[in-house]
Amino acid sequence: MKNIIKLATVSVAAAMLSTVAHADSLIENVNGITLDKNGEVVRFTAMVIDDEGRVKELLDRKDKRPADLDFQYDGEGKTLIPGFVDAHGHVMGMGFAALTLDLSGTRSLEEALQRVRDYAERYPNRQWLIGNGWNQESWGLGRFPTAAELDSVVPDRPVFLSRVDGHAVWVNSRAMEAAGIDAKTQAPAGGAIERKNGQPTGIFVDLAERLFDQAIPQPRPVERDLALMKAQEILLANGVTAIADMGTTMEDWQSFRRAGDKGQLKVRIISYAAEIDNMIAIGGPGPSPWLYDDRLRLAGVKLYVDGALGSRGALLKKPYADQSGHSGLALLTSAQLKNKMSRAAMDGFQTAIHAIGDQANAETLSAIEEMQSSYRGDRRWRIEHAQIVDPADLPRFAQTGTIASMQPVHQTSDRLMAEVRLGPNRLDGAYAWKSILDSGAKVAFGTDVPVESVNPFPGLAVAMTREDENGEPFGGWLPRERVTRIEAWRAYTLDAAYAGFAEDRIGSLEPGKRADFVIVADDLLLSSPADIRKFRVEQTWIAGRPVYRSE
Amino acid sequence: MKNIIKLATVSVAAAMLSTVAHADSLIENVNGITLDKNGEVVRFTAMVIDDEGRVKELLDRKDKRPADLDFQYDGEGKTLIPGFVDAHGHVMGMGFAALTLDLSGTRSLEEALQRVRDYAERYPNRQWLIGNGWNQESWGLGRFPTAAELDSVVPDRPVFLSRVDGHAVWVNSRAMEAAGIDAKTQAPAGGAIERKNGQPTGIFVDLAERLFDQAIPQPRPVERDLALMKAQEILLANGVTAIADMGTTMEDWQSFRRAGDKGQLKVRIISYAAEIDNMIAIGGPGPSPWLYDDRLRLAGVKLYVDGALGSRGALLKKPYADQSGHSGLALLTSAQLKNKMSRAAMDGFQTAIHAIGDQANAETLSAIEEMQSSYRGDRRWRIEHAQIVDPADLPRFAQTGTIASMQPVHQTSDRLMAEVRLGPNRLDGAYAWKSILDSGAKVAFGTDVPVESVNPFPGLAVAMTREDENGEPFGGWLPRERVTRIEAWRAYTLDAAYAGFAEDRIGSLEPGKRADFVIVADDLLLSSPADIRKFRVEQTWIAGRPVYRSE
């Protein structure tokens, strides 16, 4: 506007003054360790943080400390490492799981039923009893549980219990009644109903779970907001300062926004919308900007190509070893997958595709190869889980720049089940972290929380050993797929950030990146995997501010 | 945290420096006029604005100017007034209207049909032709138009045209086909289908419009975002710096958020969610905070008690004078209304209730009286339109602290129609601005854009004269309801802000409030109503930054 007179001198003076006005913070006396952007280990004893919560400088013992400080924190010589980035989790699912009936860790059907009974007594006013975390494989049951067994502990109210992997539900008779399900009910495409003499037994697999959608009361936004707060608590207590949310619904997004709007969003959430419709409804013409000082961004879309191995939904090239003629459930045809990927890619959305079986991975890699020719640029195609990959397909990750987003702890949880599902001769590309890395592809690690605990330390230990918490099998399962300590750590930090287009702001402690870090008692690089598994987070800081401290 | 050492001296020094660091701006040499918070006129010649876009000081010619300035603007003696606050509009509807077929201002059915034909030729690829703004009252037709008449200009594609008040649609035969509508189709509750010999004629009133919901392709988010940008352009060109959005859907909200996230939200939007479900889905446990530096807030919910007068949907105490036995359409029972109001009030959401007919206003006032006893505090119940109020009910606005949110230009558009609908003896409480003000209640003015133009100047002129753009009727229609110049201005600024819980930040130019203002050529307080009607906005500024300048 012509009448505006810029008073340049004043502005320059103001700019000079404002540099002086903002003082830094100093984290002093720590055993600091991080990877740099090249994956090299950097050690430091102090860190300067600017007033926007970004790392300004890493200092050695002999380096000069800044003169103007807003505050200083004495780390008492403890180990300071970058906050963990969980490359694959379900934030709201995690919060709800923490607030609902939890059957994880149950060792027998009886123990699970006892927990259901206790929960029902504790919440006499809840219309529906909702729970999750059961795994009949851990019960040595050799079969799915039944509605009749649930009826024996809760005959009067509907009970709806998701399997640990989310790919099957176990319900009681009142739940089936409420949903109007009987012997005549057909499973929708992509789903299956377990039956005995034609009667549903109480187990509904994959898309058959949707038969209950109308009957189950939806959580209200106020309950969603509580779940998000609960999820943040757990993430911070586990040293996870950023997480990729795999399958954000509009309701989830609104909870994220409400928290952000009120300054209550602490953890950084890299969001992948649940399906194309949510992606468009939230993002409109493209991914969102980074919001709330890098605490939220809609990066892309989460799609599902198949189900899970435990519920025999994973799509295999050959039939399941333990169910003849059955090769899993295709949730999308190859043409549908490519249409959806195109729809996302044309507007610059990233795609993260759930593929567990070898056929699902092969089809997804083929689709990515086709997309590559149409959509140029830095696309960072992601395959989520990539659990069973035909060894012949392994090189295709690196060839297409596809990131394998994998969950180390799944390997120990699934090992025995995978052997039964696939038989002994089809395990060569199972949970093949090292092979994928060595082929030149990037691997990002996560937990699939709430399927597994969000604690990253058991994940690091498993990645290095392929042994479970009891040290089984000794020397590791398919031990050639063990990765090095640095590879494991990198996949949980730097490359998990890269997988979410966030490596310029989080994933390591380097000047210009956010000062998100965790304080633990011992040195991560000098501890044994068994000790790392037992690491406890003492403090978690985000953007240079403390957000969690253990009791 | 115990180890944090606050370095108090440094912080204080930093705070002192930062005060110096932020320089102010000066708007100089203006004929500044505003109301203060008591409604008194204040004149000034210069305004100091702080670096957050807030008014810091109003200065007289003799007052000392600040020394440290970031920039200075010379107003060349022109008049500077606060930005207008439109208390009732439809932001997205306004944007879409500007991008779709516009039949407003047509003087005959032939002219309207010609415009439809031209539009169809201009957009040969649009599947549906969507338009609005028609008003058979302005055509001297004495009846509604018909599908057959539309077929004569567009036989090959569906055409769907909303009446100027949004309370009826006019469609062609292809549109009815596409929606599967024939002689057997029944109108839903709250709606009506015009028929001749049992066949639908092409006019669908109020909720009967929803029969087309499934058939009409929904705009995509990218089109919504374009509509929002268009709406902002029009608002700023008319000097409207804030608007209450009456009926925000989740899709609308996402557009507002995307614009805000990208720094493209200029106008301030006070949002009232469309119905309780959107209110809860967006707001969750309560109204949102002010977002984007006071540019967006979800304040409450918009509810509808009845329809509009033109389409005989307004709910009257006695039957319409021109349709015996028909008293309008109740869109909610009294019990439903109170349930919804309770649902909003319990979580602190404000309610803005569309009530046009005298019966609708009486029922809404009764509901508010009942709410008052349960929900204490500063509630600011709003009745939107309050067009026809039984004189006996007028004092109930002030008694309950209810704000009458009214649209002056509706009075001139509706005058002849209202006389026909109500007859000569039931007009005592029609568009009764002055009576409501004198009873002690607050009146907020708006335009109901896109029903009327968002230009506030004709509204000011109408409010002062009750004459239309041609000076009819001379001396004003029911002239005792004319308001003073200051009352009209206040209802378009200070009290429109008050109606949206925003009077602490906008609505007048006072220290601490946002520097939202408009520059016009002449003095608003010294110009005749006829001249004010012709005022053109030369510049619009929001938060101390120029956002519009006329060519």
UniProtKB/TrEMBL annotation, chains A, B:
Keywords: Signal. Gene3D superfamilies: 3.10.310.70, Metal-dependent hydrolases, Urease, subunit C, domain 1. Residues 74-548 form the Amidohydrolase domain. The keyword Signal applies. The keyword Acetylation does not apply. One of its GO terms (molecular function) is hydrolase activity, acting on carbon-nitrogen (but not peptide) bonds. Residues 1-23 form the signal peptide. InterPro entries: Amidohydro_3 (IPR013108), Metal-dep_hydrolase_composite (IPR011059), Metal_Hydrolase (IPR032466), YtcJ-like (IPR033932). This is Amidohydrolase 3 domain-containing protein. It comes from Parasphingorhabdus marina DSM 22363. The lineage of its organism: Bacteria, Pseudomonadati, Pseudomonadota, Alphaproteobacteria, Sphingomonadales.
